Amino acid sequence: MGDVIVVRDLVKRFNDRVEVLNGLAFSIAAGDFVAVYGKSGCGKTSLLNILGGLDRPTSGHVSIEGEDIVDMSEDDLARLRLNKVGFVFQDYNLLNNLTVRENIEMPLKFSGKADGDRVDYLQEIFGIGHVSNDTANRISGGEAQRTAIARAMMNEPSIILADEPTGNLDDENAENVMEMFQLARREFGTTIVLATHDSQLAKHASRAMHLRDGKINDETQR
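Above: the chain's sequence. Below: its structure in token form.
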């Protein structure tokens, strides 16, 4: 399998002075599970936002499945996010007035697809079928994050970007969520890029990259 993410000479500055990413260069193979870890404020979220087309770098290149996304139009970036990249956030970003099932189905409303069987399957493998008809404000934090992962998987993206997805969870639920990412990788071949401040949590990944002082230290694959 080839590389699905290639980053070269990536720089991100804020206010033309504060440099949070300084010439990053790395590649990520299809189906890999990479944890980017570092202390709060080191640039992890900035990196994920650039990889997902939510933000643009000051300079450098980012290729997703062979396409350089840095100079893409906003419409093309929106299509990229809809079809190739799924997002999981620390705060779940679920709609509290919708049921678990309705939250998972949300990407279908934008893609125009209709796939009830996939909703059922995702609920089953992520262990949330029993809360399918509960509204998001009535489920636990662990269930909410598993719902968010299922929603991110709905349009069969090749990449999942997860920003501190265990930040609001206790240790047991955090471990469970990491297992869900491993499951997504095994079941669908999804490439996972996860940002965390917890170096111990990063050990769940097949590969860890330490982001510090704007540089990446790409550690030995496990």
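The first strand starts at residue 3 and ends at 14.
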